[in-house]
UniProtKB/TrEMBL annotation:
Biological-process GO terms, alphabetical: thiamine biosynthetic process
Domain Pyridoxamine kinase/Phosphomethylpyrimidine kinase: 13-256
Name by which UniProt lists this protein: Hydroxymethylpyrimidine/phosphomethylpyrimidine kinase
Origin: domain of life: Bacteria
Keyword Kinase: yes
EC number of the protein: 2.7.1.49, 2.7.4.7
InterPro entries reported in the protein's UniProt record: HMP/HMP-P_kinase_dom, PM/HMP-P_kinase-1, Ribokinase-like
Keywords: ATP-binding, Kinase, Nucleotide-binding, Thiamine biosynthesis, Transferase
UniProt-listed PANTHER family: HYDROXYMETHYLPYRIMIDINE_PHOSPHOMETHYLPYRIMIDINE KINASE THI20-RELATED, PHOSPHOMETHYLPYRIMIDINE KINASE
Keyword Transit peptide part of the UniProt annotation: no
Family affiliation: Belongs to the ThiD family.
Record pathway: Cofactor biosynthesis; thiamine diphosphate biosynthesis; 4-amino-2-methyl-5-diphosphomethylpyrimidine from 5-amino-1-(5-phospho-D-ribosyl)imidazole: step 3/3; Cofactor biosynthesis; thiamine diphosphate biosynthesis; 4-amino-2-methyl-5-diphosphomethylpyrimidine from 5-amino-1-(5-phospho-D-ribosyl)imidazole: step 2/3
């Protein structure tokens, strides 16, 4: 039996709703074998981030080398990268192993406001990692940082997607979770703009939506899906996960990673 393999290079969320925990849960539900290279450990729950502990560069490098040289990967995603030096290392590894199915979730700030990427590392993201990405998935605040624009509507999301694509990624998805009204995501592949519509679910349990969405894209790419199909599955996956979100903790609860699989009986 062959099984698709996906690697997440990201931070740990002890609360289990975001970070590598969200990624591995998503890979599993989508029938993909998940692996991880941890960049940082966060002490985190639904109320916020209570501590960040970066791992040594050597530890990040060895984890990536260990899984790729033995098990191999069909797709890779990045989440919390924390520092410029880790971005540079990950970019070098992507080149060294010629990893083509790379999904970059440019995680910068957690919901409660804690920085998950040092401000000085934003340039490294643009210079080193975005040019290597098959797909990059900024939310509205991240797209604003990357472009210097203010984004208030779908027209401005399109403009941002266009500008971010100039940094080199093949496909840009600007996620609309932070705007009001419908949860619309804008996709731009250099020739066509597409919009993925989703009804907005009225819940505060949206911790980990961005991680889960980008992990679902990665899982589908690992199985050989086309980019547009992978993004469409991811949108369905996250909509189900938010609709059936979990009332856990006293703050922003996690999404429900089983929901998509249960509804489709996969
Ligand atoms: N309340 C909601 N109802 C339906 N879909 C949503 C809602 N919030 C976000 N989404 C969808 O979830 C996905 C992730 O988008 P979002 O903008 O929330 O990412 P993010 O900001 O990276 O995540 P987070 O806010 O957890 O850090 C997108 O497809 C977005 O449209
Ligand atoms: C370790 C870690 N990584 C990423 C996020 C952002 O999560 P999201 O944008 O999916 O809510 C987070 N809160 N913690």
């Amino acid at each position: 039996m062959t099984i698709a393999r996906a690697l997440t290079i990201a931070g740990s969320d002890s609360g289990g709703g975001a970070g590598i925990q969200a990624d591995l849960k998503t890979f599993t539900v989508l029938n993909v074998y998940g692996m991880s290279a941890l960049t940082a450990i966060t002490a985190q729950n639904t109320l916020g981030v209570h501590g960040i502990y970066n791992l040594p560069m050597e530890a990040v490098e060895k984890q990536i080398d260990a899984v790729i040289t033995d098990i191999g990967v069909d797709a890779v995603k990045t989440g919390m990268l924390s520092q410029a030096s880790i971005i540079e290392l990950v970019s070098a590894k992507v080149k060294q192993y010629r990893l083509s199915n790379l999904v970059v979730d440019p995680v910068m700030v957690a919901k409660g406001g804690a920085r998950l990427l040092e401000q000085s590392a934003q340039d490294a993201l643009i210079t080193h990692l975005l040019p290597l990405a098959a797909v990059v998935t900024p939310n509205i605040p991240e797209a604003e940082v990357l472009t210097g624009m203010t984004i208030r509507n779908v027209k401005e999301m399109r403009e941002a997607a266009n500008r971010i694509r100039e940094f080199g990624p093949q496909t840009v998805v600007v996620k609309g979770g932070h705007l009001s009204g419908e949860a619309v995501d804008v996709i731009y592949d250099g020739s066509t703009f597409r919009e993925l519509q989703g009804a907005r679910v009225d819940t505060r349990n949206t911790h980990g939506t961005g991680c889960t969405f980008s992990a679902a894209i990665t899982a589908e790419l690992a199985k050989g899906a086309k980019v547009t199909d992978a993004i469409a599955v991811a949108k369905q996956f996250i909509t189900c996960a938010i609709e059936d979100s979990l009332e856990l903790g006293g703050g922003h609860g996690p999404t429900n990673h089983w929901a998509y699989g249960k509804r489709r009986q996969i």
